[in-house]
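Quick note —
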Amino acid sequence: MKKHTLLIFCDMVRGNLLHNINKNIKKSKFDLFLENLGGTLYTNAYTPAPDTGRAYSMLQTGLSCKKNGCDDVWKYPEFFLKEDIEILDEILLKEDIETTYIGTKRNDLSGVFSKKVKNKILIDFKIQTYEKSFLILNEKLKKFDKTFTWICLDDYHVAADDYGASMKSDDVGKEKLFNIFEKLFTVLDKNDFDEIIILSDHGNVHKYGFKDSRILNLLNDDRTKILLYRVTKKNQEFKLNNELRSILDVFPTIIESFELQNRKVCGVSLNQKVTDERIISMESYSEFLHLSPLNLWGCRSKDYFYLTNQNYKKMYQVRSPVDYKEINIDKEEEEKFIKVLKEETVNYEVKEKELKSIERYYEVLNYHYRYSDNSERNQFNKERLKSLKVKRVPYYISVLLSKLTKRGN
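Predicted structure written out below.
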């Protein structure tokens, strides 16, 4: 039986800037393309790790970053993925499924794919274009009964690099994506594929979007809500799905598309419904700096979005995929979220211990103290020490600690 699955990875596309998720956004050619292709657009899809390297690691293993070895922003799969994990490519090749990975030389240099990935077609824009690789793919579809193809498209991210993260770059990025999708499906027939999944890895932050304190906005919807779209031969009608979904759900879906036995993974196949109790944990950093620590966390449930750096926190009630109302912290919900963060993230529990240590240090500073000869300290110093009394560690102290402390240690 013939089975062909296509995965198209679109770097940086923001889920909350798609018209069918956010009606405040004008409909682009890219939005229309997805509608005409049919299938399902997921309105509440998230990444636990809003950066490219960690996203690729989850897609290739079905495991969280804490489990797969790519447990930091700059740890890319080629160099840090755990050797003993059987990746998607190995599983498919073992079943005689022809695999193809189409990307650019830049993708390859950054190390987005595991070094165990076999069949890569790398685009060098000086001498070739994507269209040539599409022709090669077309021949493979005719030659092999079962194929899996992964296409990497950087156009949206490149537009953000050119114009800055803005509505201008959003317009340009979507237009460029539409252009390449149109070329792809001129060469290929969408009906040749049993399954097509189109997704992004993270978003970006600019003036449009719901705002938090600056220290938290790198985990809000602008950064963590992704594009996740799926069309199958059995599901050709365009529709929206409001289930809470994760980028981790893609791996088991691909495995099932070839009717293979699923592995023990961290996601839930798109063929299965998720429960209302699902919580997606997130982890990132508060500054775009090399070697910045993972010091920002979030949890998204069906009804709430919780953001924290352990010193400062916010909770939102989810009223729609793009409508959030800030509320007082619900302690019962917060306890659930913190439990998940301790279990699933790399650094939450580590930083919690470090901050408690700082709090103890401040308690010592406030303790009444004399010189060793039992004489009183200078009055100015005593008053100054009283003024240092705090209930929580100031934000600047937590940032300083984060910069001085080696991540994960």
